[in-house]
Design a protein that fits this description.
- The complex is a heterodimer of chains A (about 260) and B (about 300).
- Chain A has 10 helices and no strands.
- Chain A has about 260 residues and is mainly α.
- Chain A has one domain.
- The radius of gyration of chain A is 19 Å and the shape is globular.
- The relative contact order of chain A is 0.16.
- The mean pLDDT of chain A is about 95.
- Chain B has 2 domains: about 220 residues, P-loop containing nucleotide triphosphate hydrolases (Rossmann fold), CATH 3.40.50; about 60 residues, Alpha-Beta Plaits.
- Chain B has 11 helices and 14 strands.
- In chain B, helix 3 crosses helix 4 and helix 8 crosses helix 11.
- The longest helix of chain B has 16 residues.
- The chains are: A mainly alpha (about 260), B alpha/beta (about 300).
Chain lengths: ~260, ~300
């Protein structure tokens, strides 16, 4: 069947963690510049949108605007950390540094290299999420002990966004063309996923579209429920969507990278 | 014993036949060369041996293992120095070796010991904590070789190991490769530097357009291909027609201002050139692999 290759089960063993360790090591070499953006950015957003704009916005579903916004900022950082790591970061290692070529000349195979990259993207998502969660908590915007579950959840969400990013990396002929998924996919998704305003403000059709196709809205809903301690049954659907989506994009992205690199 | 056996080895990329039904055997402990112009299929052949490029058809056995089934086991036995530098620019010189050793499941202590040894062997100890971007071309090449040796490979695959280096750096690398060979390593080398092939290779093949054109030791290839010597004389039409009538001259070629005559009897050829052909000056030199190479692959420029 045409296209069946996309769903081949990747051959991934324990060696994939060696790639993860390599990425982690280089990340720690420049840790200062790596830790500052996730620390500063949410503070800026919280002050500008939460405190500033919040003065003019009435409470949403019984919570103040800044409390509504804070979990969305956490979710956005989950997305950005993994997506950018597995697009621009992986593209540079693949195309300019030839790091993947160097590694596949050893007992590792390409599936393990890409899986290691995805696991690293998810880890970076978890690191950034932990920092942003700390900032949000310092602002007194976390009202539930369940918020601690945001940290393991960010690994799953990171794998999902990393896999999506890796699909674009596999498709992108040049590094410049990676700006298309950024501005045509990530930015619009960031605006219509119940982040800066409730999704119910949008027409029903757009709401349905968002829940059917946009991963961020599910991630935002779960993160918001965990930080505010306000759960409903729809969250189970969101979690199922995320798990299924993650399995799908991880497998598909590995196969697409294999097709690109193994000729 | 043959450590690499290739039969009917073929590789197609879409409608391009990069390697076209070739066969060769590499013996354990020898240095085996692949010579050819750009696009001849050398690197593609290397990549198939490395198990990173699947065969289109044919058979390829490395150290008794089939490349299609046993890629992991084969890769443990190989050390690869690629044509394009792929050192990790995010890491220092020594870290490049240490991180790479992990991929071969080498323990940390063993890796550190080997890394330090290799840095000494390739005269890089002073640069151990330097970033890759601060290294000269020669240092990068040496580090690529050091990295290729980190797992004490049974077979060393070197794709253009001295490309772009100055003579000093090149000679240093040749010396190190000779030492490795004397320690029993099997070395597979691609190059388009004839001098390199003549100095290092026990046997070699000349490839072009995906085919093997000739195979043998450098000496055999020169003797079979052009004879022992080459006589050079200034090009003029009278000399050429005179050469055509001379039964002693079987093989000559005109290259711009010069006539090249390959022969095993240079004295007689020069004698007849000067006496009967009206040539005023001619010189003789030893035939080289380059003469064979150009004779077999032509003088057309390859992109």
């Amino acid at each position: 069947m045409k296209g069946a290759w996309l769903f081949r089960v990747p051959k991934v063993g324990r060696r994939t963690w060696k790639v993860w360790r390599r990425d982690g090591k280089t990340f720690m070499k420049t840790y200062r510049s790596n830790f500052i953006p996730p620390l500063i950015e949410p503070i800026l957003y919280l002050v500008a949108f939460g405190v500033g704009l919040g003065l003019f916005v009435s409470p949403i579903g019984g919570v103040s605007y800044i409390k509504f916004l804070a979990p969305a900022l956490i979710a956005i950082s989950m997305m950005n950390a993994a997506f950018f790591e597995c697009t621009f970061g992986s593209f540079v290692r693949m195309y300019y540094q030839k790091t993947f070529d160097a590694i596949i000349a050893t007992p590792l195979n390409i599936d393990e290299v890409i899986m290691g990259e995805l696991l690293w993207g998810a880890t970076k998502s978890t690191i950034y999420t932990t920092i942003v969660l700390g900032v949000v908590a310092a602002f007194g915007l976390v009202t539930s002990a369940f918020a601690i579950l945001v940290i393991p959840f960010s690994f799953l969400a990171g794998l999902l966004f990393g896999g999506l990013g890796m699909i674009f990396t596999a498709l992108s002929p040049k590094i410049d063309t990676l700006s298309y998924p950024t501005s045509l996919y990530i930015t619009p998704m960031m605006l219509i996923s119940g982040t800066f305003f409730p999704i119910s403000a949008l027409p029903l059709l757009i709401q349905q579209f968002s829940y059917a196709l946009l991963p961020l809205i599910h991630v935002v809903d779960i993160t918001r429920a965990l930080t505010l301690g306000d759960f409903d049954a729809n969250l189970l659907f969101s979690l199922a969507w995320i798990i299924a989506g993650t399995v799908l994009v991880v497998i598909v992205s590995i196969n697409m990278m294999r097709r690109r690199l193994i000729v | 014993m043959d450590i690499i056996i290739a039969d009917h080895l073929t590789k197609n990329f879409d409608d391009l036949v990069a390697v076209n039904d070739i066969a060769f055997r590499v013996r354990e402990g020898e240095c085996f060369g692949f010579l050819g112009p750009n696009g001849a299929g050398k690197t593609t052949t290397m990549r198939m041996i490395q198990c990173v490029s699947p065969l289109t058809s044919g058979k390829l056995v490395v150290a008794g293992l089939g490349v299609e089934k046993d890629e992991r086991r084969i890769k443990y036995l190989l050390g690869v120095s690629p044509q394009e530098t792929n050192l990790d620019p995010d890491l220092t010189v020594r870290e490049n070796l240490i991180i790479y050793s992990r991929y071969f499941d080498i323990s940390r202590e063993e890796a550190e010991r080997r890394a330090d040894e290799l840095l000494v062997f390739f005269q890089l100890e002073a640069k151990r904590d330097t970033g890759i971007d601060k290294l000269s071309g020669g240092m990068k090449r040496r580090l690529l070789l050091a990295r290729a040796l980190i797992n004490s490979p049974k077979i060393l695959i070197l794709d253009e190991p001295t490309v772009g280096l100055d003579p000093q750096a090149r000679h240093l690398i040749w010396e190190q490769l000779k030492r490795l060979k004397s320690q029993g390593s099997t070395i597979i080398l691609t190059t388009h530097y004839m001098e390199e092939a003549e100095r290092l290779c026990d046997r070699l093949v000349i490839m072009d357009n995906g085919k093997i054109l000739a195979e043998g030791s450098p000496k055999e290839l020169i003797l079979k291909g052009v004879g022992e010597n080459v006589v050079e004389a200034k090009n003029d039409p009278a000399a050429i027609s005179c050469l055509r009538g001379n039964p002693k001259v079987q093989n000559f070629e005109v290259l711009g201002e010069t006539i090249l005559i390959s022969t095993s009897e240079p004295q007689q050829v020069i004698g007849s050139l000067l006496q009967t052909c009206g040539v005023t000056a001619a010189s003789v030199r030893k035939a080289t692999l380059e003469d064979v190479f150009l004779k077999l692959t032509g003088r057309t420029l390859r992109e």
